[in-house]
Design a protein that fits this description.
By secondary structure, the protein is an all-alpha fold. Helix content is 79%, strand content 0%. Helix 1 packs parallel to helix 5, helix 1 crosses helix 9 and helix 4 crosses helix 5. It is elongated.
Length: 221
């Protein structure tokens, strides 16, 4: 494989598009997923403010979206993607299905993290007269921060995997390079390079997530 300037520029552009897709969609997914996760925990039958009907309906909707394979979802929402961003090609277009796929996943990750908080801490806050929002902001979210950070690293790497699949429909990024050159043109070297770069990105994200989690964990200080 020849790393001429054109090839290097193409790979650098692919890295930039991949990082754009992953971090923009991750940010939007967390803006949606955190409130959904909080609602799932708060409205649970054993939660701070039980609302079983809302919890059940929301849980079903989240499970339905999570059960659809991303490649199918990517194609199914093409009309909606075109409506939102005006195109179905490129990194910008992939952000829409990535958010739709990732937000329910993030919601479940947040729910799992919040449910790890010691019930005794929550009861202590209740006994001091704390309201629902106070418990959420001052107890649930701060106490679950280490777990939330680990979950964020897992979620972002999952979204990275989704972004690579978008290459099959011209989504841009490293996935498109791997498919166009490694699959259609049988350039195994190019595919191996893109895979290696994706592995490095995953390792960096995972390491940052783990270090951030340890730094915020009061139990190991």
């Amino acid at each position: 494989m020849n790393f001429d300037p054109t090839t290097v520029n193409m790979i650098l552009k692919g890295i930039g598009e991949t990082l754009y897709m992953v971090f923009i969609s991750s940010a939007v997914s967390y803006l949606i997923g955190i409130p959904l996760g909080v609602i799932l925990v708060v409205t649970d039958k054993g939660g701070i403010h039980p609302v079983p009907a809302l919890n059940t309906v929301l849980g079903i909707l989240i499970n339905l979206l999570r059960s659809v394979p991303f490649i199918i979802l990517l194609i199914a929402v093409l009309p909606f993607t075109r409506l939102v961003v005006g195109t179905t090609l490129g990194a910008k277009a992939v952000v829409v299905p990535l958010v739709i796929a990732a937000a329910p996943y993030v919601a479940r990750m947040v729910e799992s993290s919040l449910k790890e908080v010691d019930a005794g801490v929550i009861e202590a806050a209740k006994s001091m007269g704390a309201g629902t929002m106070q418990i959420v902001w001052k107890v649930l979210l701060p106490e679950s921060r280490p777990s939330l950070l680990v979950g964020a690293a897992i979620s972002i790497t999952t979204i990275l995997g989704y972004s690579a699949m978008a290459g099959f429909v011209g989504g841009g990024g490293l996935g498109t390079i791997a498919i166009n050159y490694g699959y259609y043109r049988y350039q195994t070297g190019m595919m191996m390079v893109t895979v290696a770069i994706l592995v490095i990105i995953v390792q960096i994200i995972q390491e940052v997530g783990m270090r951030s989690s340890k730094a915020s964990d009061k139990r190991i200080k």
